[in-house]
Amino acid sequence: MSCPDRPETQCTGLAKRLMVQTIAFCHLAEQSERNTGAFGGRTRAAIYARVSTGHNGQDPTMQTRELEEYCQRRGWDVAGCYVDTGISGSKESRPELDRLMADSHRRRFDAVVVWKFDRFARSVSHLLRALETFKSLGIDFVSLSEQVDTSTPTGKMVFTVLGAVAELERSLIAERVRAGIRNARANGKRLGRPRVAVDASRIATLRTLGHSWSAIRRETGIAKCTAQRAFYSLSGIGACLTR
Q1: What is the DSSP letter of 42?
Q2: Less Cβ crowding at N or C end of the chain, within 10 Å?
Q3: pLDDT score recorded for residue 8
């Protein structure tokens, strides 16, 4: 003869069922949020591709096809296709990339999908600046080859690591510059722009003849402020000598 379930056992079973249902609901909500754009509809994705040359077997279609298939699997609508052909990745300014960045400020898409990091950015600092721009605009960034998606916790972690690496790179560069300046000064090197040879007596003569500062600048080939500084310093010396 079986014993009836105790009330605490029934409550424990009910709590477990509610927990499972809650987890499933949160998972569905997360999937729905990732597939929903900023305006409540389907996510609008912009895909970007680049090849360095238009020949030698480099075809951007290979990149765009895989990116379009990825968007289809995610249930995203392709809002725009931006392709730079025959442009080196060392250039930060590219026609289609510039158009993509401009459209991002116009909020024409909710996510940017690229085939690989090096197809999009020329350096870590360039990539980080673009990611910071997208983050401020509420735009997600996906790199297909590296499997990085800034809408996920893992993608956000990668973004943080990239930021730390870029900050470290800037600090190392600044330290190397300071070390180079210290070494140059220790070797007796004079830093800064070279001094301009100024004939103060000639400037004083021209002023005595009634020439304007603009005319003196054109005749001597030096800046107006430099000519004035030389003239007034000469006048000061003359005043001191007459005392």
Answers
A1: B
A2: N
A3: 46
13: left (phi over 0), alpha (psi -120 to 50) or beta: alpha
Catalytic positions are 52
Residue 159 is which amino acid? F
Q: How far apart, in Å, are the Cα atoms of 50 and each of 106, 159, 231? A: 22, 22, 58
pLDDT in tens, 112-123: 999 988 888 888
Report whether 94 contacts 29 (CB < 8 A).
no
Supply φ then ψ for residue 48, to 5 degrees: -125, 135
Any bridge partners for residue 81, and if so which? 47
| Per-residue confidence (pLDDT) for residue 142, from 0 to 100 | 93
Give the residue from 114, 119, 167, 164 showing the smallest Cα distance to 139.
114
Question: What pLDDT is stored for residue 239 in this prediction?
Answer: 43
**And the tokens for 135?**
């983050």
Residue ranges in the chain assigned as alpha helix (H): 7-34, 61-74, 95-105, 117-120, 124-137, 153-186, 200-208, 213-220, 224-242
Instruction: Please identify every stretch of the chain with a pLDDT value under 50, giving residue numbers as ranges.
Output: 1-4, 7-11, 14, 20, 22-30, 32-34, 39, 237-243
CB-CB contact of 176 with 207 (8 Å):
no
Q: Tell me the sheet residues that pair with 140.
A: 111
3 state DSSP class of 40: coil
